[in-house]
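Onboarding guide, step 5: your first structure request.
Type a short instruction followed by the sequence, for example:

Predict the 3D structure of this protein.
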Amino acid sequence: MVAANIEVSETPLVLYVLRRADDALILGHRLSEWCGHAPMLEEDMALANMGLDLLGQARELYSYAAKVEGKGNDEDKFAYLRDVRQYRNLLLAEQPNGDFAHTIVRQFFYSSFADPYWRAMTKSSDATLAAIAAKSEKESAYHLRHSSEWVIRLGDGTAESHARTQTAIDDLWSFTGEMFEADDSERSLIEADVAIDPATLRPQWLRTVSGIVGEATLALPNTAWMQKGGRSGRHSEHLGHLLSELQSMQRTFPGASW
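The system replies with structure tokens like these:
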């Protein structure tokens, strides 16, 4: 027997919380794929710990979404029993790890947004989201510092590490624009001071990214074209493969417990 997909009542608040939870879950899973494969033991532990931080954020957000929705779903059902089109994570988060430079640049782009995002969300009129943000900002600050240091080290390192990091920047740049978009559903929450307008974070994000990339002797692409679709459930082919692994146990043995 294969577990059926759950139904989700996507009110604006539930949808908003699920989008942020999905970002954390999917990116956290990507980082977990490095466990035992990182270039050095210390970095193996660092990537795993960042993945655990993101998993913790996902759990809190999924639990809150379940409480707001009030339909009997919980964090496990949200994580394991939704179809790929029901996930609303950023396309950036689901991109494959690639080489080490690719993973670091993906984390750097995301953390450069997540850090000011969570700091701003500590002022949310929603007390639960503000509390989650206060904890998450401390974690994202470390993620940003760690990935920034690696971007500089790789970019200003050998010819090989420089070339690989520049390739990663070029490949992932088109996925960054989606972070700053908000649809009508989010606009209602922004007007109620529950959410913040992500577009207001773009100048700070660009200053951070430009500064680190410049220090790393690298360059940002000169293009304004951006990929999008993740927030509305339209994903790259990579997410389906990721979910087949992530959900395999729960799908094969529905309701199993340790």
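Each response can be followed by summary notes, for example: The chain is about 65% helix and 0% strand.
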